[in-house]
Amino acid sequence: MKKFINDPTKVVDESLQGYVDAYPDVVEVLPDARVLIRKNKPSNPKVGVITGGGSGHKPAFLGYVGQGLCDAAAIGEIFAAPPADWIYKGIKKIDMGRGVICLYGNFSGDIMNFRMAKTLAEVDGIEVEEVIAKDDIASSPRENIENRRAVAGEVIMWKVGGAAAAEGMNIKEIKEVTSRAVLNTRSFGVGTFPCIIPATGKPSFKLEDNEMEFGIGHHGEPGIKKVQMKTADDTTAELMGYILEDLPFKNGDTVSVLINGLGATPLQELFIVNRKVTEILEKYKIKKLITYVGEYFTSLEMAGFSITLTKVDQEISRLILAKADSPMFKQFDLNK
Amino acid sequence: MKKFINDPTKVVDESLQGYVDAYPDVVEVLPDARVLIRKNKPSNPKVGVITGGGSGHKPAFLGYVGQGLCDAAAIGEIFAAPPADWIYKGIKKIDMGRGVICLYGNFSGDIMNFRMAKTLAEVDGIEVEEVIAKDDIASSPRENIENRRAVAGEVIMWKVGGAAAAEGMNIKEIKEVTSRAVLNTRSFGVGTFPCIIPATGKPSFKLEDNEMEFGIGHHGEPGIKKVQMKTADDTTAELMGYILEDLPFKNGDTVSVLINGLGATPLQELFIVNRKVTEILEKYKIKKLITYVGEYFTSLEMAGFSITLTKVDQEISRLILAKADSPMFKQFDLNK
Lengths: 336, 336
What we know:
By secondary structure, chain A is α/β, with parallel strands linked by helices.
């Protein structure tokens, strides 16, 4: 296993330590729970924003703890949910008297533990709400949209929810607008090479030479089909077909675009994908609010990418364009 | 070849198109030369900053065209220098009457073409200077420091030179401080998996299972030795040994730290490396000004990483901490 690690059982802790070593003025870890906390509290009390999930997705989740994004991230083992007790401690730590909203992905372990943490915090008198991302079209048909997994759409959820909290909205307002962003977000991904989980040393899935998995999940979950490699344009056109049809996105809509690399796919290829995405959006007369291209939510060294579109209204646009400043996600205020 | 491309001969052009499609308000391409230009000129005339080199290193070079960084990047084919004529056209385009400084890496093709472009521009009455990064310790012994290749240290060169130009310094002052930053920058990298050049479909080098190349270059150039995989801590300690000894960096110095992923190495591992780097710097009582961890200068999907340290003085610190805003490198003003 060609990995730059020490003890496979200490990968998450040592990586987290290296993260705090890199940004000691920005983040800290709770003494008794693996929860990363934003250090500089805003001057006016705001609703706290917490996320969390399994490790192996950097820059998610910890990279999004910062100004205009999340105030805390509970960090599980690789591809495993963080314990409820840690999430609860994170909620307690970041509550400023206006409640805490949990923004996480639709995975059973995360749901169970975030809800247990919510119950514990409510006993302490903290108001807790949640919004759950379910943007991955490939993981369940449209009739069972509630069963869909989360993929890179979580990033847009954090951006919108984090900006709403930073603006001073109350917890109900944040839940409303963030839920609306989630409902209007769709993703679809393809994978070409698996990742290797440090603890097992084994590939997360198998593909033949020249084969790709359409609709792959962020943990290597199978998608809808295995197909022979196609050109970037054909692959992108097929993905965009699924995405545009599902919401549906249509003539006159405005969208944010996120082309997310899963880990090992060069940025060069992601921009080739974006070229085709742009062409297709122009053909359908769908306007682009903003485009993000890069590694925003990875699966270790998995190769492949996903496309995420969010249909935006005026309020969601404003929140997406707002300033954000975490170690892994920096954006100057684009509303000016 | 599992790549998201169309025609292998159009990879660079299509990727560039996708880049401009993503950031149309920020950058544009010259009509008659593959040079990316910053769109929004500063209100006060400043010295122009141009870089360039072969493709395949994204976010370098084009990702660093923006405020407080470079004004133009001339873009060659994959791992091949851009033609002199393009560089010349870039220089002409960005000159605001205060001259243009060329900040590039120590590769023979780039040197030849940048110098030819310099000569052409000087005939037109444009003052042109250059600073050449040569930060890769492994590429040549200390006695022949002039022969060393550039690797991720170029990023620090652009940050310092770009900030100096944005401050309004004249071309001689920029050359002086940027040269000083380059002289005080040292890098060392290791590679574990090759990249595949689209045009050939072949790996850029060969390594046995469980083997890594110490001192690998950004194009897969051989380093000083092939060794069996070691732990992250042992690998990092050995790299840091070479780096600290070479300048040398010593007790009381302040440094910027750049842990650069070559393409396919997960961020998780880069932070494990940073943990050890931090421990070693603390042991030697070397202070950290700032830490960058991520993919700043890649080699397509090559796996591995490099460590870059720059010894900083007060002026270089101020320039490194200054605001920068390009699509791929955003930093809020940290001098405030």
